[in-house]
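Me: Here is a favour to ask of a fellow structure person. Could you put it straight underneath, so I can go through it closely?

Assistant:
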Amino acid sequence: MASSGKKKTTMAKLTRESRLRERRLDKQAKKDARKHAPTHHADGQGETLNATTGDGESAPPGAG
């Protein structure tokens, strides 16, 4: 059954909204990339920092 009313949203508004959604997705992707990039780099450093326990003995692998 067809709608009896007119379409209330113009193509210009639909285009603006779709562009805005794309920009938000791109921004979130960049934010996630920045967020994950340092943690991957820090993992290599974290292993050397956690290589020994407080009493000077070596910690077993995966005991972090």
Observations:
- The longest helix spans residues 11-49.
- The chain has a mean pLDDT of 77.
